[in-house]
Amino acid sequence: MRWWTAMACAAVVLRMVLAWKGAPVWLKDRMDVSPPHGTLRRIQEGVALWRLGHSPYLGSAWQGPPLLMVLLKPFLYLQSEFEWAYVIPYLLADVIASNAIRKLAKHLGKQTETAEGNEEEMTRTVSSGWALYDLKDGEEKTRYGAPHAYPSKEWLLALWYLWNPCTLATCLAGSVAGIENACVLGALAAAVENNVPLASFFVISATYLSLHPIIYALPVGVILARGAEKLLNKEEGGEVRERKSRTVLNFLAWCLCWSLLFVGLSECVLSSSGHRPSTHWMSQTYGFILGVGDLSPNMGLYWYLLVEMFDDFRGLFTFALQMGIVALLPVLFLRLYERPLFLACVQAVIISLFRPYPTFADQALYCTLLPLFSDQLSKMKHKVLLVNSFLWIDALGPIFWYLWTCLGVANANFYYAVSMVYACVQILLLNDMIGATIEYQREIKDEKKDV
């Protein structure tokens, strides 16, 4: 067994040991780790109401979708005998996510480019971390000549996701955000492999959990039709365009089928217990997310603004902030159409910026995707500032929350200051990412003109 495989297994074992030792006790109610519609405590309350014959949506105990509760209920029953049993579905989600990011890195490592004016396709040797892939013969060689002496880039990214402290805390807290990340990464990995049913399943699953991931349907559909990165100077005939249109229509049809299936199963689950129809759980789940029904302090921008302003203006500001996720989508799509996988990474940052209940799992998602684009992002101008800012936020955010809510020696301004800095850093990250990518694309075009 290679050492990086042992490290992946150790990350899985560490999660089980920490869950067994009671690590989630102080993570259950942390809003920077778990959104209110997917915390472990609320899932337990919803399951308890269900067992007593009451609707899980009674009061404010549970605001998640019904199938999520059905999925997690067996593991919560086992928790009475095995303290670490609750972590199993979240652990599996992390394993799925790490495997998906490994597939994405492997696929990008084998991307080829065609040069204008050449009759033969030129295959570029791509540097992937410590390993070099000779795409001509498919052999993997390290910089020092000995095969398999060091892990390839895809294994490093998988280990980075598994050992990321944000991912680890999300898993131990029993947060639905970890399952959402697995669905998003699974959709992207399935898309690069041209698996339309599986890609649509993961997109709808992520949307079913928290609604906002619906915008990932756009880059996933483009990846299925055109590929993760456009091959340069490859002309498209009418037959190719027709095939791409059929692929997109097929993807949309599968998304519709999965959506109807999820809604139908949710209705069957609730009606079998004699509870209200589907419109009730939809309003309780997605209405809660869109209407920001919980104003508990978190890393987002909503809670402080909505608490301080008059009630008459809450709807307007909530709508304006929620629309931020959708408003940027058309412009980014037109500019990054040729790089749909990078577009998905940009969307991950935007969702984290504008969603009402962001968590550190959102940060873990785009920080895992960023190394996939190391060539183009090497031109970022504020790398050191961004890295130090994220470290500062991840350290001081929990400290200020503890000082305010537990010790009472601070106030809301301290914690919201960290939230505002977090938003500013993400805006700076977006600006740097997109600017570096545009410069990278311009250099590629200039090089091709010289050839």
Structure description:
It is a single chain. The chain has 451 residues and is mainly α. The protein is 66% helix and 2% strand. It is built from 19 helices and three strands. The chain has helices at residues 3-20, 40-51, 66-78, 88-109, 153-163, 165-172, 176-192, 196-210, 217-226, 238-272, 278-291, 302-308, 314-327, 329-335, 340-354, 360-369, 374-377, 383-407, 412-450; strands at 126-128, 131-134, 139-142. A three-stranded antiparallel beta sheet has the order 1-2-3, with no helix packed on it. α1 (3-20) runs parallel beside α5, α15 packs antiparallel against α16 (360-369) and α15 runs antiparallel to α19. It is globular. Residues 112-150 and 231-235 have low confidence and may be disordered.
Layout of helices and strands:
Blueprint: H1 3-20, H2 40-51, H3 66-78, H4 88-109, E1 126-128, E2 131-134, E3 139-142, H5 153-163, H6 165-172, H7 176-192, H8 196-210, H9 217-226, H10 238-272, H11 278-291, H12 302-308, H13 314-327, H14 329-335, H15 340-354, H16 360-369, H17 374-377, H18 383-407, H19 412-450
Antiparallel strand pairs: 1-2, 2-3
Helix pairs in contact: 1-5, 2-3, 4-5, 4-7, 5-16, 7-8, 7-9, 8-10, 9-10, 9-15, 13-15, 15-16, 15-19, 18-19
Features:
451 residues; three-stranded antiparallel β-sheet; 2% strand
